[in-house]
Each structure stands twice: as C-alpha cells, then as structure tokens.
C-alpha cells in the first residue's frame, strides 16, 4: 500500500514504512496473515498521548487547577476525539483489516480508528522521536483542548436537562440516533431525546455525542420557553 497521501496529511514521512504498516494492522488482519497487529503500538501510543497532552495543558493553561486539567485531558484524550483525528486524515483508507472486518465496514468503526491513531503515534515516536509526535498531537488536539478548557467546571447540557426533568422524581430519558447523512468520512448524525416516551427535541452533530448534546440543548431551550 502507498502511504504517501496519509503521510502528507499527518505532516510526517516515515523512514521505516513497516512501522507505519504495523500501526495500521488490525488484529483481524494480523490473525489471518500471521503478522504482528498494532496492539502493542496502541498500548504505548496511549501513554505517549496522555503524557504529551498533559504537558500541553500544563504549559498553556496555568490557571487550571489539577482536577480541571484532569477533566480537560479526559475529554480530549478519548475515543471520540481520536476518531475525529482519524477521519480528518482518512485513516480508514489505509487500515489493514481481516475479511470479516472489511465486510462489516470495520474501517469506519470509531474504536478501530481511534486505536489506530494511538498506534500511529507510537510508530511516529519510534521513527522520528518525541518532538515529531508532540507536533502532531498539538496540531490535532489543541482546538479540542481550547473548547474543553472554556467549559471545564460547567455542567453539560445533558446533565442540566436530566436535573431539570428529574426535579419532581425519576423519569426515563432516552437518547437515540435516528439518522445519518453525508459520506462515510464526513457523516452528520441526528439524535433525538425523549422523556417518558415523549419526544422533546432533535439535534445534529459530526459525532453521536455532539448530536445528543445539541438535542439536549434544544430541549432545555424548549423547557425554558
């Protein structure tokens, strides 16, 4: 497989292409072809990502308390954020998957894509060092860190909605993804929130979480009016 387009997108050219190939090799492909999967690289990449994102938050957000920094990091270093990074750089076009995963569109599964980002981070570290990885992580996550730091300590819309609806006792609140549109690499999700079977509002977003959050925000506005 030619990785040139991926390397151009992530801003780094690998000296050892086998490292990059290993980082993109899912366990299903590894099992079928008797090669190493990306699991070990993913394990290391997770730690590197946590360390470098912690360093970035520490250096750039001195006013945040320790607990707030932890919350920001947890919001940013998560499957959803890494899935968005994978989508941005079209990782789905370069994954090595086994037959069953290919048939079930494994290259679009958030967990597989997020794991591949962590593995690529470790591969970049081995190939080019910590500085190279830090540049990649900061460029791809600084926007998410900025947004998270602005809202740290504030309750999200889903939490506020739940508190408002349960003020007079327990109610059954359900979020459902009721539709998607757009190409696989740039989907928009539509979510619906209902309370005790009554539909309150719908929302849209580039991730399921964003769509649910917008639905909750609209439901709150409806309740206030």
Description:
- This protein is mainly α and 225 residues long.
- A hairpin with a 6-residue loop joins strand 1 (173-181) and strand 2.
- 60% of the residues lie in helices and 11% in strands.
- The chain is built from eleven helices and three strands; from the N terminus they run H-H-H-H-H-H-H-H-H-H-E-E-E-H.
- Helix 2 (17-23) runs antiparallel to helix 8 (110-128), helix 5 (66-76) crosses helix 9 (130-151) and helix 10 (157-165) packs across helix 11 (208-224).
- It is globular and about 60 Å long.
- The chain starts with a helix and ends with a helix.
- The protein has a three-stranded antiparallel β-sheet with strand order 1-2-3.
- It folds into two domains: 4-151, Ribonuclease iii, N-terminal Endonuclease Domain, Chain A, CATH 1.10.1520.10; 157-224, Double Stranded RNA Binding Domain, CATH 3.30.160.20.
List the helices and strands and how they pair.
Layout: H1 4-10, H2 17-23, H3 27-33, H4 39-60, H5 66-76, H6 79-88, H7 99-103, H8 110-128, H9 130-151, H10 157-165, E1 173-181, E2 188-195, E3 198-205, H11 208-224
Antiparallel strand pairs: 1-2, 2-3
Helix pairs in contact: 2-8, 4-5, 4-8, 4-9, 5-9, 6-8, 8-9, 10-11
């Amino acid at each position: 497989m030619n990785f040139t387009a991926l390397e151009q997108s992530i801003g780094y050219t690998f000296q050892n292409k086998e490292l990059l190939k290993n980082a993109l090799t899912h366990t299903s492909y590894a099992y079928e072809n008797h090669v190493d999967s990306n699991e070990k690289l993913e394990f290391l990449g997770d730690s590197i990502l946590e360390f470098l994102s912690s360093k970035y938050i520490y250096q750039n957000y001195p006013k945040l308390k320790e607990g707030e920094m932890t919350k920001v990091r947890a919001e940013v270093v998560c499957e959803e954020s890494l899935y968005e990074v994978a989508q941005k750089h079209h990782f789905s076009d370069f994954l090595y998957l086994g037959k069953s995963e290919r048939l079930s569109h494994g290259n679009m599964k958030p967990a597989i894509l997020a794991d591949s980002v962590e593995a690529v981070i470790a591969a970049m570290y081995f190939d080019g060092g910590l500085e190279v990885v830090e540049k990649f992580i900061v460029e791809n996550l600084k926007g998410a860190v900025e947004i998270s730091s602005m809202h740290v300590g504030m309750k999200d819309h889903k939490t506020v909605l739940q508190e408002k609806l349960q003020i007079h006792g327990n109610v059954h609140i359900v979020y459902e993804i009721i539709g998607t549109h757009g190409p696989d690499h740039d989907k928009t999700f539509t979510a619906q929130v209902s309370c005790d079977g009554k539909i309150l509002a719908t929302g849209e977003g580039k991730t399921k979480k964003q769509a649910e959050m917008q639905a909750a925000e609209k439901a709150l506005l409806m309740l206030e009016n």
